[in-house]
Protein: Protein rds1
Amino acid sequence: MASSTSVRGTALLCLINAAQAIPFASKAQTTFSVATSEPPVVPHTDVTSHGPYTGTPTTTGALSTSVLASAIPHLPPPDDAYDYPADGKLHGDQPAPFTPSGGLGTNGSEPVYRVQSDFDYQSLALALYQEWIELDLFHWGLATFSDEEFEAYGIDAEDRFLIQHMANQEIGHATVITNMLGAQAPKQCTYNYPVSNVAEFIDFNQKLTRWGEAGVYGFLPHLNSGPAAQLLLQSITIEARQQLIFRQFGGNFPMPEWHTPGLPQSWAWTLLAPYISSCPADQTRLVWQNFPALHVLNQPNPARINGSDVWNETTGGYANTLSTADIPEDELCVNATGVGSNCEAAISNNRSIPLSYPGRQVFLEWDDPGKVVGPNNSYVTSASCGQPLFAAWVSQLNVTYTPLQNISLGDVNSAYTVQPNMSTWEGDPAVNGTMFLALTDLDLYVTPYNLSMLNPHVAALAVYQAG
Ligand SMILES: *[C@@H]1O[C@H](CO)[C@@H](O)[C@H](O)[C@H]1NC(C)=O
Ligand SMILES: *[C@@H]1O[C@H](CO)[C@@H](O)[C@H](O)[C@H]1NC(C)=O
Ligand SMILES: *[C@@H]1O[C@H](CO)[C@@H](O)[C@H](O)[C@H]1NC(C)=O
Ligand SMILES: *[C@@H]1O[C@H](CO)[C@@H](O)[C@H](O)[C@H]1NC(C)=O
Ligand SMILES: *[C@@H]1O[C@H](CO)[C@@H](O)[C@H](O)[C@H]1NC(C)=O
Ligand SMILES: *[C@@H]1O[C@H](CO)[C@@H](O)[C@H](O)[C@H]1NC(C)=O
Ligand SMILES: *[C@@H]1O[C@H](CO)[C@@H](O)[C@H](O)[C@H]1NC(C)=O
Ligand SMILES: *[C@@H]1O[C@H](CO)[C@@H](O)[C@H](O)[C@H]1NC(C)=O
Ligand SMILES: *[C@@H]1O[C@H](CO)[C@@H](O)[C@H](O)[C@H]1NC(C)=O
Ligand SMILES: *[C@@H]1O[C@H](CO)[C@@H](O)[C@H](O)[C@H]1NC(C)=O
Ligand SMILES: *[C@@H]1O[C@H](CO)[C@@H](O)[C@H](O)[C@H]1NC(C)=O
Structure:
């Protein structure tokens, strides 16, 4: 622990090496009046170049070793899964006063804040790619659009400082993940954003932070390293707040859903990769799959007074982020008058005309696999399923399937489906908020902890703006 002054009362976590230590629960000031040095952050640059990658990649395809089977087999639950009585009584001796028996990582063994498996490494590396893009994206928007352009959407100087602050939070998130990964941790890349004005910037941010958030929720409870999960959890809760704030800046109801969905890593990577242009030469690659893009032709547009009255108003597949290009000024909600119609940046806005609703026909087009995508165009989209037959609505705690209708395959693959009418709980319509839509060849029953079992059946993927 070279740089970690062994001051009594100072607890420092020793990670890969001393230079990467994270000070934790530092109480040095209460013991000695010595100034503790500020722990260094990971190297980063303020503005990287932007725009699509035009070169030829030096390598292609996801990272892989020997692949043992085409899918993970379905097994029954563990034998002891129902053994614990769950009757409110204590069933074991207490290891210490006021301490129940059980739990993981509770026996006093010293926590080690590092990845412990390929699963851990690849998951945290994915999360790091996400933190890096957010750091750049938030700065880029502030540098690209004028104060007047922000103010036209009700985003004033104090709001812009909050965006600046959210970018800075990403430096901390990138640092903590880099420290847990070690020397080969992915570095900052260059990016391209499907955005040409403030409304599109804010909408892209609220969608991107949603898949960043949901992407981590999907793997967090599966990590081998509980200590790594702990630190990542304490970063992703900030990301969740950023998502909500960008919804507020976009004039949306801040959090219509009662639960946030979790996503498999390959879904998060699928949604993220298209916006990464190129990465440094020695960049660590990922194992995850890139699915083909799903285009929601009538993706609800939160910039409109009637967000569901819309045709082909996105800036492309995957994020399906809003475009304002075709909206006449009198159909924009930002300057509309009246409660329920106006959507200027606010703590909360009622959307009296719902963005989407049960029974809505949703028109879809999707790409064939085999397209190059992601950093240096060095990953290739793939799908191992047959012809898609269902739309999987991944929202809150539920995955619900609706049949695809009028399926047409060819130069353009298209179909439509109808938004389902179901509730997670009484009073909580399941399909709401910024959520996810996948096309699948099977209506496989999956739940939040085994959603990745759906991967072999996924044909294409999108963000859906349900509310
Ligand atoms: C304590 O728990 C850790 C896992 O958190 C385990 O690896 C270790 O063997 C346990 N130690 C003892 C003494 O049981
Ligand atoms: C909304 O109205 C204000 C005041 O008239 C104006 O300055 C602003 O540009 C308008 N915003 C948009 C997006 O048109
Ligand atoms: C989405 O949630 C909001 C907030 O609870 C609610 O007002 C709205 O009606 C919901 N949308 C739908 C389509 O159920
Ligand atoms: C990606 O592009 C960068 C910049 O041109 C280059 O340094 C790097 O080697 C490329 N990586 C791959 C995998 O092609
Ligand atoms: C909003 O647009 C939808 C789709 O075109 C339409 O069915 C609905 O009646 C509109 N709502 C209002 C209040 O105009
Ligand atoms: C949607 O818009 C894009 C670009 O504006 C255009 O190329 C495409 O053909 C349109 N698609 C449909 C189904 O209208
Ligand atoms: C906002 O929407 C809720 C739910 O539809 C409704 O109960 C409430 O009256 C609305 N508030 C205003 C100020 O319109
Ligand atoms: C959705 O289901 C609820 C409860 O069954 C019902 O009251 C409502 O009318 C349904 N809405 C639509 C659009 O089918
Ligand atoms: C679906 O296909 C049928 C038969 O070709 C056609 O009549 C109907 O209009 C189509 N529906 C939509 C929504 O495109
Ligand atoms: C949605 O998820 C909840 C919680 O797991 C479950 O109780 C409910 O039955 C699910 N609803 C549907 C329609 O699948
Ligand atoms: C996922 O888990 C649920 C139980 O929560 C189980 O019923 C279902 O069969 C599992 N799905 C797969 C594909 O393993």
User: Anything to note?
Assistant: The chain has a mean pLDDT of 93. The first helix runs from residue 28 to 31. The helical segments are 28-31, 118-144, 147-151, 157-181, 198-219, 226-249, 265-272. The pocket of 2-acetamido-2-deoxy-beta-D-glucopyranose (ligand 5) is lined by residues 306, 308-309, 353 (CB under 6 Å).
